[in-house]
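Hey, resending since the last one bounced:
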Amino acid sequence: MRTLMCAVLVLLPEVAMAQQITRTNPPTLSTPTGYTHVVEVNGPGKTIYISGQIALDKNGDLVGGNDMKAQAEQVFKNLEAALAAAGATFDHVVKMNTYTTDMSQVQAIRDVRGKYFTKTTPASTLVQVVKLARPELLLEIEVIAAVP
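The structure tokens again:
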């Protein structure tokens, strides 16, 4: 009996701290191919991994054409929807990676970003790439959020 009690006391914290991973594709976003829009890691806190969002609406149609600001608006709307699906907001974002095909238009991205990050700003990376998954895409942004 003593051995059983010791085992329970040793293993109980492990069971209580076990992490669960949940993957979600919110109906407010386009249907993904080969990736998940939202991955949540639950444990003592929750870490949320949002796949790179592009300027596609819920139906998978491109928004913004060749307009960086319009594409950025859609990308941030998609990020907001993905975060909300996991119970988070932009205030919870701790890391953001931005990929653009035209660094000369970075101010348009920053202007839109400023509308969404009003209280806190995440650690960030901004990279220019030759091209994204589709030739008409100008921007892709992925984020990681932490919810206490």
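Residues 18-147 form a domain with the 60s Ribosomal Protein L30; Chain: A; fold (CATH 3.30.1330.40).

Sorry for the duplicate.
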